[in-house]
Give the backbone structure.
Amino acid sequence: MIMDYFLGLDCSTQSLTGFIIDFNKKRSVYSYSINFDKDLPEYKTQNGVYISNGGNIVHSNPLMWIEALDLLFSKFVQDRLPLENIKAISGSAQQHGTVYLNNSFESILKELDPSKTLNSQLDRVFTRKTSPVWMDSSTTKECEEIRYKLGGMESTVKITGSNTFERFSGPQIRKFFKLNNNDYLKTSVIHLVSSFLSSILLGKNSPIDHGDGAGMNLMNIETKEWDQKALDATAPDLLMKLPPLINSYEILGKISPYFVEKYKFAPDTLLIPWSGDNPNSLIGIGLTTKGRAAISLGTSDTYFVYLKRLNVDLSGEGHIFGAPTGDYVGLVCYKNGSLAREKIKNCFNLSWKDFSNILKNTPPGNHGKIMLPYFFPEIVPLVLKPTVYRFGFSKNDQEGNVRAVIEAQFLSMKLHSKWVQEETEEMYATGGASSNLEIIQVAANIFNINIRQFEVTESAALGAALRSSKSYYDSTKKIVDWTELVSQYLNMQKSVVIRPNKKYSELYNDMLFVYNKCESFVLKNGEDPEPYRKDFIKKYFEN
Ligand code: ADP
Ligand code: XUL
């Protein structure tokens, strides 16, 4: 019996997941996650990260990620997985985070001793002990400096696919160059989380793929090459420190002997470039043709679409990344995703079931109670100092707060994703919170669209596994079509469609208007939203 297995790894904010698919049976055969806080408590992370400076400095630990890799592979062996049947591996990682390494990195990788752990051999390679990650918002100054040198916001968007953003790698690298100049000089190579972990498997420096490379403010979004002007605006001699860029679907080489000897992978296991979690999810959730959108409700909430053509957001709120197919992803990202929902849940000591029941038993429109949910600094709209604003209710109103945080998240998503909203017939939901169908119901009502939710919520890891199968078969000349490939897997999965209740479409259009007024009032000194909010209450709740 032929067993063609493919492994997708996903190093997300809070966990490292391994996901194995059986290509011939078109189904997943295994999935396991290492949770950073629980399974590696010695690193003392909270939700996978270290937060300091009032919430604006957020780092994680690259040694923890590689220790998680050894731990996950040991679990594979313990579960007696036939690792020798894995034909190819690819990965997914939280985007934007950077890893800073000295010149011993590659030589140590080439001589890894399988009788020792990865972290005991690699603890000497870092020029920066911790890595800034996507939740960091401490580089406003550097964003301004780079944007200025690139000729302003519109020009920055046209060159790199996004405005400068605090969490993007370029501004983070610039901050390191300015504040830790000696360490910057000692740095030989700067990786993204994705290319760093890809290097470990490969046993030498791995290139950065176009999907994740686009999240740096350093790659030219049209030519898909490092942009010299952007590099010069960021830090000196940066080109020498960056790995080359590569198409996400190319083959990098074969797995390092360390993993062959230690875990019994086949020596000819192929490695495919890792990419960001959102580009991987695009594949895992099946967005390979025009007119499909997805919401990912993980640690971050994202709204993304597949784009055949480059279509940048000149208002500067959205991003264009490379898609694993060679096309584009349009995306908007929110920091106040799962952790904001958890703040409300934990504050009232609720279980997710209680949380869902409250959503079920409270009316859409929430009696006009509106929240601006900036528990953490927000990316879109830009909020650097976290503050939660409540209109028409208090901090102690349990039911009001539960519904308000969810309605706020999707109203904001609808408001700020207008630039990318293609004609979509159906939306897809993924990520940890997508299993909560009451939350998805609110999203369906606000977007006024059917939302399909799949059984597998780990779409980034599944996407990585699917990508590795596609590149593997393409390399054997058995060309696989992207859309056929993703639909075969998605058709095998259980899914539910959450339909919008049409009765609320007008209410949510009106509420979006009031939400926008509240946002403008707080963030842009706009007019007082109260008269509009009162009209809304009168129309829907006072008769
Ligand atoms: P990431 O990939 O960013 O590490 P996940 O996609 O794994 O995150 O999602 C993790 C989050 O899912 C948790 O922080 C938790 O808040 C959320 N979550 C898990 N179960 C539920 C649920 N039933 N309802 C709402 N949120 C949930
Ligand atoms: C996307 C973003 C987050 C991270 C973490 O731009 O910052 O979605 O990829 O998941």
